[in-house]
Design brief:
Layout (H helix, E strand, L loop, with lengths): L5 H10 L11 E5 L4 E6 L9 E5 L8 H4 L8
Antiparallel strand pairs: 1-2, 2-3
């Protein structure tokens, strides 16, 4: 199978024990105070509240049509 899953799958043998695959992320926010990224998702489309977790790094496979509308921090 080819597609956007190939990028995260290539890292999986090295970081599989500390990696969460297959989660549909709805928000990604850079936190400059801690130099980390906070990812947010809903476990079900009916959930009213986002679940979130903060990470040092995130590898995300996203179509370019979505990425071009993202806002990135000024660096």
């Amino acid at each position: 199978m080819q597609g956007l899953n190939q990028l995260p799958n290539s890292f999986y043998p090295h970081v599989g024990s500390i990696t969460r695959m297959g989660r549909s992320i709805e928000r990604a926010e850079y936190l400059p105070a801690s130099n980390q990224v906070q990812l947010s998702w809903k476990n079900s489309y009916t959930d009213a509240i986002f679940q979130n977790k903060t990470y040092d790094y995130a590898i995300i496979g996203v179509p370019f049509s979505k990425v071009r509308s993202w806002r990135f921090p000024n660096t």
